[in-house]
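Progress narrative, work stream C.
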Amino acid sequence: MPLRPGDGVVLLLAALMLLVPAVGVPHEYILQDTLKSMMVALGTLGAAWLLLWQHRQRNEAMQWHGLLWLPLLLMVYSLGSMAWAHTYLAAVEAVRWFVFALLLWVGLNTLSLERLPLLATGIHWGAVLASLWVALQFWFDFRLFPQAAIPASTFVNRNFFAEFVVSTLPFSVLLAAQARGTEQVALRVFTTAFNLLAVLMTGTRSALVAALLLLLVLPVILFLYRDCFEFPGWRRFQKLLAVLILLGTVFGLGSIETRNPALLAERLGDTGPERSLMRLRSLGQWSEYTSGSASFRLAMWQATGRLMADHPLIGVGAGAWEVAIPPYQTQGTQLETDYYAHNEILQLLAEYGLVGWVFLLALAGYLLRAAWVTWRLGRRDPGGQEAPWRAMTLAALLAFLLVSNAGFPWRLASTGALFALCLAILGVSDLRLAQGQRHSWTPSLPWRPRLVQVMLVLLTTCMALTVWISLQAAACESRLVGALKLAIGINQSGDPMNPRHEVRKAEILRLVREGIAINPHYRKITPMVADELVRWGDWRNARWIWESVVASRPQVAALLANVSMAYAQTGELDKARAYYERARAIQPQAPVVRSLEVLLLARSGQEVQAAQLSRTYLQLAQVELDLVNNAYLLGLRTRDWDLAIEALQQRGRRWPKLAVDSWYKLGQLYARPELHDEARAQQAFQLALDATPVPFREQVRQAIPQPYQSKLR
């Protein structure tokens, strides 16, 4: 594609949209979207700097569109909510909307009709490279990039990948429809079909529904604007070749079965098409909405609805959904179901209140108007290029907004950048169609070379700040992940109390302190380190780590209960009760809160009352392991044998990994002189032996008292 003067900015944007989805981190020390966010922020600032440099001698104002007021409105609200909501999360939101608005502004001033194919090419090939990683992960268990939900390409989660690629399909189809020559037809049709196949491999249902919708919409667009495309002029051979390549890719390559053990274990189909059909079929199963993944989303949406009802006007503050949601979750929920509502519309309204409503209604009104203008334009200028580009962009936004109702693509770097660029394509098209007419919502800004110089200095400062923040983010994540990996390794050694681990334990604490010092608001990884520390009894250090997270997220019942338990373990009962009361005020029915109530009663010398309460709580459907363990110990200390037996039986049934130990202890309990129930003791010892893996059975057999060994099977 030949470059013209002034194409540099669009070339940079195209390169950005190619690299962001295609590039990932081959280790876990930096999260994938952290890298992508760095790239989008620096790429956007770089594109804006280059645009201003090219116009440094300009005297007339740069292009502006009313769409720019929407992200700027959210940015201003975010800055304001820093004063009364969660300061850190609100600041993150303000930066996000600033980058979004800047990218939109750059697009408005660069995306001429002639340059749109260059941008679309970058978007398309970024999706192709990302899809290639998915295919390798699906077919061959390719493990270059760490995965949470495979196959996820470079996105860590397959849903993130599918949401991005399905939103790029209209641009891929447009490029394929504009192909000239047999080689170009074959390549563009194949890569478009390949992207679709990659979406099928993920089985992401929101993306699959969006793809089905596009299968209805895109043929209509191609038919309505057929005079604007090249495909009607293809030779018969080329048309047949395109159809064969499309079908051969989706159903031919799609028939290759996965060799990924994790995907095979899911039992959701061995090929991409089969997997997609099974996942779509699951939407019609009632169990999906009662116990499947859809039930978790429904629970989050219901909780968000209750949150919105309590804060209808000003919301809870930009980015503060995850901080405010715990008291509104279903009773008994002790952790956030997730850190995002998995519905961008609901989360926006919950966080921004009336400002969110203004944003959504204005955006919806604009998109409806844009669709109407596009329809009329196609009828008035059947051979023009403006209408098909607008139609395909609207189709991309349709897919994007659909998946936004089941995920959080606005907050992810790749999809967020695509959202901004789609709006820029529509906005700059509006400006071309207006032919210089100024609207009341379009400001007349003074524009002088000196102003450009000031803006260049500001952008240079922003880029330097972005580099510094990126380095700090990488340093924080690498330290926290490093500490977590060391802690897991010590626990997996089988002998965490061995003195040879002391140096590594000191290193863990150093890394955690440094990570928290950089970012005390890191919710995801920091508490996981503390969870590992308590496995070898380091409650004191686990406590201050949990407390650092509670300072940022003060309404998470499980974290408050963990701090309370840590204080109880170190004998500071007054502080333990204070944190327990905070946890109970938020989620009184949470299993961890009930377990903590029993523990505090026992530690206060009220063992009889604690035992009675344990017996009541053991009858409930949700029971904490700590409660079961404490009930067993209380039963022994109070000589309440029935309680101890019930606790061990539940422990053996509910936690299979502890079955051997549970049944063995139950056998010992029945064999005690106070009970002396030989038949039940023999039965419990047999259950312990049966639950033992074959290589260790002889060891367990030898541990069983001699009178019972001879009767074992």
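Work stream C, second folded protein:
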Amino acid sequence: MLNWHELRMLMIFQVAMIFMVQNVFQIYSTFGQQLKSTDDYLQQAERVSKNDFYRFINNSNFYSTHAQWITDDTNVSVLWWENVIAIQQVGIFVGSILFGYISDHFGRQKVCQYSLLISSVILLVEGFLSSTILIALCRFIIGTQTGAIIVVSWSLTTELISPRTRFLARAFANWPTGKFALALICFFSQNWRISLHVCAAFTLFGALLYIFFVPESPTYLQCHGKRTEAHNIVADVFKNSNGKCVIALPGGIRSKPLTFRQIWKKEKYRNVIILFGSIWVMTNFTATMLDFSEVIIFHNNLILSQMLLAGVPAICKILLGLVEIYFGIISRRNLHLISLCINGISMCASGVLILFGLQKNYPTIYVLVFLIGYASIEFIWDACYLCVVEQVPTEVRGTISGACSFLSRLSGILASKMTIVKQRWEPAPLFIAFATAIIHFLIAFFFLNESKDANLGEIGFTLRRISQKVSQKIHQIRNMTKKEKQPSESTVPAVSKIRKNDISGPVLAEIQLGEGNNVP
């Protein structure tokens, strides 16, 4: 069972997770864009006074940003506003690699506390803005800090808890719970400005928790030569957990951190970035595509749909966490592969239901099938995060985690545009998710290793084994494409000699080679 120290770490990580979600504009801008100007919602929204700073509407649980801009005669077709969520994705794309690298050089805790402090100020200011340009700029900045927290807070949390608790960190402090909390904030605030202000308060609270209650990673300190500080933190953790949380420190010391260029030049690191990067790319592509294209799945109700999409995966993760607590049978590799199978089958079945129009006749069946596949994505993410943390050395963990997140955000930017594809053919995103799951499964099946209960301080051997496995598979594929010709009698040319009886007109005569024959 969890001790007080680990429980505190998971609670703080969950508070940070509420900030990480940052779906405020996805919730508040999506609904209005799907409606016609003659819809009752927009008609009533236009009758709301333009002088009211916090606006509310009677026939819905929230007043959307899209409705406000239409009411204020603001141009909603400009590039930066049509792509405001994609701009936030670009920010996450930049922040992931930048702050992952910074955390390996200046510390995990500093990055977490400063990112949350800066974000709380930006969210507060953003809630008072009325310029779409400035809001888009704020979304980009928030995206960079979200990328930082996604990568760095997870690394810091796992380096301050025992190996057996890592899976529980993903089960009980998770993204769906944060998403559900954000949906509740939007439901009760009923206004996008108030929601931003509440998020700013949560983010400030998270920053204070990291400042006063979270120490620096002892593994990071050990790798940077600060052995005394590292051992003091390990002793404090051991004391606060009543001896139940033992952190093993690495034996070697790296005084000079590696640059990204140096990391990329080392084959063992490069292969791991390619392997985990490809897995993260496909996971984030599927997750983001479904988040944007399947926003409303139940009774044309956005808030209820968002609660279902967050609540069901959260409950499933908690149940799986309880299974791990009592039975300890959750394998990283098997979790990844089984979740991919479930996801692929569910997405294919959901696409078929839409293709034949059955989702209208059997809406409950469609929602259940889709939710099973959607919830499985969270388990795929669990394996992605756990495998990176448990198979990458401390001195480059932040940088490589950031690189994986960086690459995955590229696919997220593309996936956010899948709503256009859905307008052309409704089941397209679901069948694309099915195809992606097949490719993802093949990569994970052939290359992914088991890493459960790995010692974060001593994982160099595991990394070398992964790198060698990737290199061997690459060489095997290359050899399969090159069929080497074996020498045979048909390919060996005849050997000839020149008869010297006629110097002016030499004659070439073939000779047969056999055992004991020599060519003069």
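Residues 282 and 498 are 67 Å apart (CA to CA). No further action is required on this item.
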